[in-house]
Amino acid sequence: MAHQHISKTLTVKSLGIDTYREHIIYMRSDCHICLSEGFSALTRVVVSLKESQIIATLNVVTSDLLQEHEAALSNMALKRLNAKAGDLIAITHLKQIESLSDVRAKMYHKKIDDVAYRRIINDLTRGLYSDIEIAAFIAACAGDNLDLDEIISLTKAMIDSGSRLKWDEKIILDKHSIGGLPGNRTTPIVVAIVAAAGLTIPKTSSRAITSPAGTSDTMETMTTVDLSVERLKEVVTKEGGCLAWGGSVNLSPADDILIRVEKALDIDSTGQMIASVLSKKAAAGSTHVVIEIPVGDTAKVRTQDEAIKLQYYFKAVGDAIKLNVVILITDGTQPIGKGIGPSLEAMDILSVLRNQNDAPADLKEKSLIISGALLELSGKIELGKGVTKAKQILESGQAYVKFQNICIAQGGFKEPKFARYKKDIKSETAGTVIGIDNRKLAKIAKLAGAPHSPSAGIYFNSPIGTKIEIGQILYTIYSEAEGELQYTVDYLNSISQIIKIV
Amino acid sequence: MAHQHISKTLTVKSLGIDTYREHIIYMRSDCHICLSEGFSALTRVVVSLKESQIIATLNVVTSDLLQEHEAALSNMALKRLNAKAGDLIAITHLKQIESLSDVRAKMYHKKIDDVAYRRIINDLTRGLYSDIEIAAFIAACAGDNLDLDEIISLTKAMIDSGSRLKWDEKIILDKHSIGGLPGNRTTPIVVAIVAAAGLTIPKTSSRAITSPAGTSDTMETMTTVDLSVERLKEVVTKEGGCLAWGGSVNLSPADDILIRVEKALDIDSTGQMIASVLSKKAAAGSTHVVIEIPVGDTAKVRTQDEAIKLQYYFKAVGDAIKLNVVILITDGTQPIGKGIGPSLEAMDILSVLRNQNDAPADLKEKSLIISGALLELSGKIELGKGVTKAKQILESGQAYVKFQNICIAQGGFKEPKFARYKKDIKSETAGTVIGIDNRKLAKIAKLAGAPHSPSAGIYFNSPIGTKIEIGQILYTIYSEAEGELQYTVDYLNSISQIIKIV
Fold first, then answer.
1. pLDDT tens-digit profile of A232-247?
2. Alpha-carbon distance A145 to A141, whole Å?
3. pLDDT single digits (tens) B257-267
4. Nearest Cα residue in chain B from A17
5. B233 Cβ partners below 8 Å, 6+ apart?
């Protein structure tokens, strides 16, 4: 960055304050730089140390916490700048960020072009945006505010914002399920089956956005998911597949920045979702992708029409970036499996892979449908015979062996655990389950601590159609902290029923 | 707030950190509350001390800055909670904020109703929203995304969010000028003329949003603007008018919260602008209002069509809340007066009120037009004779006496000052000025430090039509800090010309 003139320096002090991703610099209100540069609380400044630069927000210190020649940095800022106590840092004005005028145009519902999206995503990736600027961009793109051209521009900009994996094989498979359906954790089973079939599926997943668990949160209860690009390539070369966290391999890093704020706002807009999903697939080097869209009253996608609109966008954007996309529209009326939350979902996955009698039939069935579609899409298995082949690989135990080998290649396998505190929720009426509010169920699992407490969540016993007696356990809430469990139960007592029994 | 259960307490420590309006609580990562409640960095929590409660964002401390039983609060949080070192505070979970689902609906371009706006504004005023949530609401309302019903709902909700002044007089006058035109500081002159005519004009103004000075910033260089409701009433009862800061009398407090984030995002949307302006007028107890809309290529309102659309909304919303609104569409092609920035604009105002020979004719003329419209709107002066009457009051010196008396009643009068550092910008060509980029001019005044440095800004010598010689001073930049002046000059050298000379 050549657009600042560097004036004066301060000595770094570490206060040990964790402000998460937003970088904070602490400076005395009477320090010579604040005075001469006219900085005040919340000014955004450029902090430089040798060749490194970050943007930080100023918090002014009005006490003796710092001496006059000192400045402190938040933990993440220290790390990003590679600074330690005693280093000399320079603090200068931040130049106007030109791409923010593109964000403003988008807020005013104008269509913006390829160049504008590239500028926005580039500045975002360089850490130039504050959290409120990111929030404004997300809100401006929410709803149906991006047309097809814009989604394509955003997707391309996001692909180019990070590294891109290259593979020798001609066909690289991938899958994605639209969220909103608790416990819908088919990915580890699908990767195991497809890799056991001799195909290549270098799967990277995200952590939870607005749900109680993402695939990476779940996998992390069984193995290491934080792999470098080199380690990921080794695992895939050896086993044909992997189950890694996408964030650690710097694929579409802009997406990770956007997702953090989307999570805080609890929204997920159409255009950004499509760009997010497809940019990660393209950056991972995939060529053929199956995308599952569960549809249900309380799933993320609520109607068949909405699913068909998404299908259109996914296929059109896929065409534009040379990705072969197949859509599966599935039943999203109730949770899949029994566990909701990282460890509890991992237990379901293992029971399916181990062909246990108590394995959830719905999780198994859906995993086979997706695996079948991938086997057929690869051209290796004849159309119409994919599911049968997938079933044979799973039931023969080949998929479980492959899953174990992938975990071992990633750093070792461990069994997921139950949380320390639990509370059974029992039925006060008798009858048959006729409906489930997935959103509230997911919310309860989150209040109980999932995903930040990996073993927290819900073990669910009452799918639609279950006959229920008075006093029968509908589900069990697990939590790692007593306070969270109590708070969750308090919340539960304050809302209308989650499971409809008549 | 009855919706949290209070569990445990920590001892308050003051670290003296100013984070501006967002409240921050600092807690050790290994403190018993963090552990038992599952709190982590950026969790939003409820902090309670006796009967007071605030919402704060958690920054986790990983060092010995705090002892295990201690928590620190940012300066503003300490003040709002009325807490001091040694007090025992309780920290509990923040319950889901229900009105955020209304914000999400708005992000998805849905029309939301009276009840929804009331809910949002109520929660906003109670301090329940984080900065990114406020940013999302602002972005969702930007552009033309609010229809007339929604603007009326938002305006009513904002009026009800704070206190409302009551007056004995039947006719209470007020004025407002849409921003974007540097130096357009007619208000103090208008208030002096109208009050001198024996009418009532309890004027409250804002500080700058995206401009180099607001009326309150300018008035603050001459007198006290931070008046309590009681003091404001005293001043108006005695003098017929006042020139106070709206923020200190708690009129439409939701607006102050929104404006702070709008300022950081550098946007000002139609619906929110109308609600902001009219809610302040209604809350101030006004009955008759003149609103000036300057139109020009680089003013906030760029076309006549846009001004006429605004006129429609202002009048329609005015009708709905029983406010008699008159619109004046004026020429906004160039700055008004010579000063841009609080002190420099104050000097222009004084020169007009003092009837000096060098007083800017444009500022005087526009002040007379607005004053004339108000005199006629009051019914006290016949239609068509307002400007003549206003001119007589100004030129006779009655307006200056009234202005002095208002300042004295508010706490005393002082002369505005020039800043310590200055730089003359000279012309490199000869010719005639044919155009001025108001936005860039305003930006330069801001870079130089206005409004946070009151005497910073621009003294402008080259209105449209001025004959210019090579080497002639086009304008002078003033700054209170050497660094800011240098940075402003650097910026100036990096952009295309601001004043077009042919």
1. 999 999 999 999 998 7
2. 5
3. 888 788 778 77
4. B61
5. B165
Separation CA A8–CA A24 (nearest Å): 19
Pick the CATH number of A421-501 from 1.10.3720.10, 3.30.1660.10, 3.40.630.30, 3.90.1170.30: 3.90.1170.30
Q: Where are the domains of chain A?
A: 9-93, 173-248+277-410, 421-501
Contact A133 B480 (CB under 8 A): no
CA-to-CA distance for B67 and B71, rounded, in angstroms? 8
Cα–Cα distances (Å) from A79 to A87, A225, A251, in that order, read 13, 21, 21
Predicted TM-score (pTM) of the model is: 0.80
Name the closest residue on chain B to residue A72, using Cα atoms.
Answer: B17
CATH of B9-93, one of 1.20.1300.10, 2.40.40.20, 2.60.120.10, 3.40.640.10: 2.40.40.20
Which pLDDT does position A81 carry in this prediction? 92
Spatial separation of the C-alpha atoms in residues A256 and A127, rounded to whole Å: 12
B268 is catalytic: yes
- Cross-strand partners of A175: A290
Structurally, at CATH architecture level, domain B173-410 sits in 3-Layer(aba) Sandwich (3.40)
Burial call B54-85: b when 16+ CB within 10 Å, e when fewer: bbbbbbbbeeebbeeebbbbbbbbbebbebee
CATH 3.40.1030.10 is right for the domain spanning A173-248+277-410: yes
Instruction: In whole angstroms, give the CA distance from residue B208 to residue A443.
Output: 41
pLDDT in tens, B342-386: 999 999 999 999 999 999 999 999 999 999 999 999 999 999 999
- As its CATH architecture, domain B100-160 has Up-down Bundle (1.20)
**How many contacts does A have with B, using Cβ atoms within 8 A?**
190
Among B123, B217, B256, B268, the one annotated catalytic: B268
Judged by CB atoms closer than 8 Å, whether chains meet at A15 and B61 is answered as yes
Q: What is the mean pLDDT of each run of 10 residues along chain A (502 residues)?
A: 52 89 87 74 86 89 90 92 93 86 90 96 89 92 90 96 92 90 89 98 86 92 95 97 88 84 81 93 95 88 93 97 96 89 97 96 96 97 96 98 98 96 94 90 89 93 93 95 87 85 92
* A217 CA: distance to closest CA in chain B (Å): 17
Nearest-angstrom CA–CA distance, B239 and B200: 8
